Amino acid sequence: MTQKLDSLQAALEAVLGGRIKDFKRDRGEITITVAAADWLAVAATLRDDSRLRFEQLVDLCGMDMSVYRDEPTDGLRFVVVSHLLSVSLNWRVRVKVFAPEDDLPVVPSITGVWNSANWFEREAFDLYGIIFEGHADLRRLLTDYGFIGHPMRKDFPVSGHVEMRYDSETRRVVYQPVTIEPREITPRVIREDNYGGLH
Asked: Is residue 179 included in any domain, yes or no?
């Protein structure tokens, strides 16, 4: 395993060079970080270069890094994480791309490199609000058409903004502001002196 990772690390460094902004090798996996401006070119290189040959995009997801491991971070907020697989060379790599702007997170779409990115990018747009520049059909995938906001963002309220219900008088589904009162539920513990018959 170590020899294979050494070979992959050497190939990545030789092919991508200075375009790798951060390199991490941990628990038998390699993670590289590249700039959003370089992402499309790097993706094509990862797929096409004979020393790498990452033919498959296995997964792509968004992440909100505003609070990570219960601690606030001072870096960029939104990141797109891709997992790539080389079937012919039998190795994997994880690629992170941070959106340069937190207010309007934008990264290039890689649907032209790996067609499987289509639905993954739509999901990341829907849930995190990350815009994939160049995506041919960037629209919501999992939430309702009239949904407001992006539910996987750390600042999105747990109860949401609107709720829907069936109105029997109008015979249709209606949307209304959330009627749930936010509250913190803390379990009440009662300890009695002789609870359970113990003295």
From this structure: no
Q: Is 142 exposed, middle or buried (0-12, 13-18, 19+ CB in 10 A)?
A: exposed
53 and 15 Cβ atoms separated by less than 8 Å: no
In a domain, 91, yes or no: yes
Q: Is residue 157 part of a domain?
A: no
Average pLDDT over residues 108-112: 98
CA distance 52 to 137: 29
Residue 79 belongs to a domain with what CATH number? 3.30.460.80
Give the DSSP per-residue string, 150-174.
-TTSTTS-TT-SEEEEEETTTTEEE
Mean pLDDT, residues 142-156: 86
User: For the whole model, what pTM was predicted?
Assistant: 0.81
How many domains, in total, are found in the chain? 1
Beta carbons of 62 and 37 less than 8 angstroms apart:
no
Please report the DSSP string for 114-147 in residue order: -TTHHHHHHHHHHHH--EEET-TT---SSS-TT-
Q: What is the pLDDT of residues 81-109, one digit of tens each?
A: 999 999 999 999 999 999 999 999 999 99
Tell me if 178 is assigned to some domain: no
CB 134 within 8 A of CB 113: no
DSSP per-residue codes, 98-122: E-S-SSS-EEE--TTT-TTHHHHHH
**Domain extent at residue 106:** 2-143
Give 92 or 158, the one with higher predicted confidence. 92
